[in-house]
Amino acid sequence: MQNNYTTKGKHLTIHDRRYIERWNKEGKSNLEIACLLGRAPQTINNEIKRGQVLQQVRKGLFKYVYSADVAQANYEKNRKRSVKKLILTKKMKDKILHYHRQKYSPEMMVKTKDVEAGVTTIYY
Q1: Is the pLDDT of residue 4 over 60?
Q2: Are 21 and 67 in contact (CB under 8 A)?
Q3: Do the Cβ atoms of 45 and 30 come closer than 8 Å?
């Protein structure tokens, strides 16, 4: 893998999480895992903290272990929630359709016609 941190701003994939799970079970430190994945050690620390589940070792004894599948499910749930929902009112929708019939591009609607919606929203 990589020895330097060149993945700034990139999200962890399910494959990265599975590697973290395997190496964590093998007893590797967060720093070693970070070097192997080319990530910052704090990223690995945060990921392990967020992906922990309580697992029963034997009757009456529980311990926290990292699970890649649980971490991925949490990531997808949080990612879905992080998107701002746009509420298109009837007035706004009519305005967009009016300019669309006049062959205005979505960019022109937003910039010159004061349509209060994002360009990608208009496209979809």
Answers
A1: no
A2: yes
A3: yes
Residue position matching structure tokens 């700034």? 8
Report CA-CA distances (Å) from 106 to 12, 33, 99, 109: 33, 46, 9, 5
Distance CA 20, CA 39 (A): 11
What SS3 state is found at 57? strand
Distance CA 33, CA 39 (A): 8
> Is the pTM value of this prediction over 0.85?
no
Pick from 17, 71, 9: nearest CA to 40: 9
Residue 73 in this model has a pLDDT that exceeds 80: yes
Name the pairing type of β-strands 52-58 and 61-66.
antiparallel
* DSSP conformational letter for 13: P
> In Å, what is the CA distance from 21 to each residue of 2, 3, 49?
18, 20, 12
> 58: which 2 tokens?
């034997």
Distances, alpha carbon 39 to alpha carbons 30, 31, 36, 102, in Å: 10, 9, 8, 50
Q: Is 27 left (phi over 0), alpha (psi -120 to 50) or beta?
A: left
**Token code pair at residue 52:** 């922990």
